[in-house]
Amino acid sequence: MITNERELKNKYFDLLAEKFNHEEQLASEIISLESILELPKGTEHFVSDLHGEYESFQHVLRNGSGNVRTKVNDIFKDKMSNQEISDFTALIYYPEDKLRMVKSSFETKEPLNRWYETRIDQMIQMVQYSASKYTRSKLRKALPKKFVYIVEELLYKTNELENKTPYYNTLMRQIIETQQADDLIIGLSYTIQRLVVDHLHVVGDIYDRGPEPEKIVETLINYHSVDIQWGNHDAIWIGAYAGSRVCLANILRICARYDNLNIVEDAYGINLRPLLNLAEKYYGDNPAFRPKLRSDSNLSEQEQLQITKIHQAIAMIQFKLEMPIIKRRPSFEMEERLVLEHVDYDNLTYTLHGQTHELTDTCFVTVDPEDPAKLLPEEQEVIDKLLVSVQESEKLKRHMTFLMDKGSLYLPYNGNLLIHGCIPIDEHGNMEGMEIDGTFYAGRPLLDQFEMYMRKAFRNKDITDDLATDLVWYLWTGKYSSLFGKRAMTTFERYFIKDKATHKEEKNPYYSLREDPKVVGKLLEDFDLDPEQGHIINGHTPVKEIDGEDPIKADGKMIVIDGGFSKVYQSTTGIAGYTLLYNSYGMQLVAHQHFNTKENVLRYGADELSTKRLVDKELQRKRIRDTNTGQFIKEEIRNLKELMSHRYTD
């Protein structure tokens, strides 16, 4: 048994010595790691608020927010026309589709083979350029596995004395003759995509509103390097799997609202028939609950009516399920959200803060005015069956486990703070907080508590009414939640009250004070980050560029990158989202225009980018030694040097 720190250190050295059992091996590793520290830092790519918009996300991911085209221009701007550059970049983005188009345009093999030779050579040049700041070992891992030897020969070819000219010519000819050219081009395209972005940050909200969040998660699972900062919409999906019935009701209500129930039923295999049967029994048409149809929707009137009924049924279950949580958790300070207790069911009015409002489009048929929180036996049975179905979905389990493994509530990374929503503060910039299990928390400790309880709820998904499970729901809707960032969620009012003044959700002062460099600097300090060099990178609140709002705030210390990936918000924001690139030279904010179709890119080379805007330019180029990865490498070097001193130095 290890009894003290010295013994633990010796045990660690023993394990290291097994890996490096000769002095030469140890020295070689130290040399390699010290050298890696001097390489330029890799490019970080930041996206947020994807909201199920898989095709738009795919395009941004494939083009590296314009990084691919930038590198193509660097190499070929004097050798290719703009149209040729567009065709080449489209090939890199969508190699399978572009190859089909190109091959169909040739009538004979000879010109096609010349095209293959030219494109493979250009691809090799792109790989060389994109990999210029990586070690050969890291590049090798990014190469298409079946072509590693061939690609390395082409990458590192030297022919000063022309001794190998026949060799290289035969290599290229045989690639084409053996019909491997397509696979090689496809493999090189994905290698280039991987090399232009070293690491991806998803700053929250993969789920809800858009139609294909599950495809986004599958893409992220297979991505080479990624982290996720949970958004409020991600939290309720995690909460539903973790056993929260009220989170489950919320995701079903939102899916019904945005005509996305197929995500639940088809993508995740969750049986909605019991919910439909309940809805058909108790509810009819209701204009307040009709689904928001996408432009490409082909729902029949009957299907729309079914969704309208489901929408009402699950909304009423949600309002009922909220009430016991609010009552058993007084520290949540949410008594005003006992909405069904504020209803006069005889006169159909709603009283809150001393004001009475007329209710319209009501659907209270399953509500007992004497006990409004009480679920009908049928409602209880339906939500219980749905929870079982959710927790038995293997695909959902895999996706939620991935979100937990790769995710966190916030992330300090390379001197910046990544957080989806906000850090709750008051109007003076002081930290706001709440009591959790008898202790008051604010600021970073509050966020740490939220994350700890979220992980606890996920580990114990069979316990459905504990504090941990309730806190996951609180993250969705509570006034001190860093993910919600508002004083109250007015879902009930939006459905049933026409006075839009009641719909307003007051934001936490963070959202106005984040314009102030001093406030942002203090927040960075609270997370042990340099207020002069660091940035806070936010999502969550769409930037209304159409109204002149600037996503770069607080003298460049605050960057908000939710500009409207979600098509629902694009008429409000005026664009289709912001992304951020951070390489060794500095930061660039990229604004994206509405993504039409992949076919538009393939035929016309449209990249859907509008502008790149410099956020910060590094006075001195950042190297790996200046990054989080560099800190780990430095620690490893210290341990290796200590081992060398301990084992091999007299």
From TrEMBL:
Q: Which InterPro entries match?
A: FBPtase_class3, Metallo-depent_PP-like
Please give the name of this protein: Fructose-1,6-bisphosphatase class 3
Q: Which cofactor does it need?
A: Mn(2+)
Q: SUPFAM superfamilies, per this entry?
A: Metallo-dependent phosphatases
Keyword field: Carbohydrate metabolism, Hydrolase, Manganese
For this chain, one GO molecular function annotation is: fructose 1,6-bisphosphate 1-phosphatase activity
What is this enzyme's EC? 3.1.3.11
The coding gene here is fbp
Which family does the similarity line name? Answer: Belongs to the FBPase class 3 family.
Give the matching Pfam families: FBPase_2
Reaction catalysed by this chain?
A: beta-D-fructose 1,6-bisphosphate + H2O = beta-D-fructose 6-phosphate + phosphate
Alphabetical list of Gene3D superfamilies matching this protein: 3.60.21.10
UniProt keyword NAD present: no
Q: Look up the record and name the pathway of this protein.
A: Carbohydrate biosynthesis; gluconeogenesis
